[in-house]
Design a protein that fits this description.
- By secondary structure, the chain is an alpha/beta fold.
- The chain has twelve helices and eight strands.
- It has one domain: TIM Barrel.
- It is about 40% helix and about 15% strand.
- Strands 1-2-3-4-5-6-7-8 form an eight-stranded parallel beta barrel, surrounded by five helices.
- The termini are close together.
- The structure holds 2-phosphoglycolic acid.
């Protein structure tokens, strides 16, 4: 079975102490993940080492960065390089979250650089794509996300694309409490997989996990994750509440 992932995205929330307690509470549930299941915590930079050591003994639990800089190193005050993340033994990095695209003007081209740097350092990018409401209303969402994949990922080799996790996050569903219906999620995930298949072949496309993000909650995760092409979720708000995220992890296929 394809890898199934429950990924928490804390964004810019929680103090260090609150984050530590949240992890303790979630790990205290002692959910034993199956070989094909993973739980990933994308936390703020200063919490990476703590998170990494919290999950160190837990099978298939990982710490992830929420971002990285698109240059290797140098005079970029305040930025964090992929090499730094690698030196902390971080295995995953969220790349191209819609909030980064919107507030920090990250383009598909910049994101391609981030993806390359991550792969060079053996960090798996969790590459986010997804359309805004106006695009959905115009009915051009498929073309829009296709372009995001083409411009940021399609220079990769077949071997490299297998190391990517994709997160489909319709912007109109992020933090709004408005979730895509299972039909909308499945339709888009199947589309994304077919776009990957058209470039890399079906066998490879079938190995790439595609997560759904956008108001995943404890009470809708199971239904969303039951879609054949939805391989788990990237979860914001509900990942900040231990009981909710525990339920979401338990909803993985
Ligand atoms: P949300 O955020 O679950 O709060 O909608 C999801 C995300 O932005 O990753």
């Amino acid at each position: 079975m394809r890898t199934q992932i429950a990924a928490a995205n804390w964004k810019m929330n929680l103090t260090f102490q609150q984050g530590e307690k949240l992890l303790d509470d979630i790990l205290a549930a002692e959910i034993k993940l199956k070989d094909h299941q993973k739980t990933i915590f994308a936390v703020p930079y200063p919490y990476l080492t703590m998170t990494r050591s919290e999950v160190a003994e837990e099978k298939n639990y990982y710490a992830a960065s929420q971002n990285c800089y698109h240059k290797k190193s140098g005079a970029y005050t305040g930025e964090v390089s992929v090499e730094m993340l690698h030196s902390l033994n971080i295995n995953y990095c969220v790349v191209g979250h819609s909030e980064r695209r919107e507030y920090f003007l990250e383009t598909n081209v910049i994101l391609a650089d981030k993806v390359n740097l991550c792969l060079e350092s053996f960090i798996a990018p969790i590459f986010c794509c997804g359309e805004a409401l106006a695009i959905r209303e115009a009915g051009t969402q498929n073309e829009f996300v296709t372009k995001q994949l083409e411009e940021s990922l399609f220079h990769l080799t077949a071997e490299q694309i297998k190391g990517i996790v994709i997160a489909y996050e319709p912007i109109w569903a992020i933090g709004t409490g408005k979730t895509a219906t299972t039909a909308q999620a499945q339709e888009m995930h199947a589309h994304l997989r077919s776009v990957i298949a058209s470039k890399y072949g079906e066998a490879i496309a079938n190995q790439v996990p595609i997560l759904y993000g956008g108001s995943v909650k404890a009470n809708n995760a199971k239904e969303l994750f039951s879609c054949p092409d939805v391989d788990g979720g990237l979860v914001g708000g509900a990942s900040l509440v231990a009981a909710d995220f525990i339920e979401i992890i338990r909803s993985l296929k």
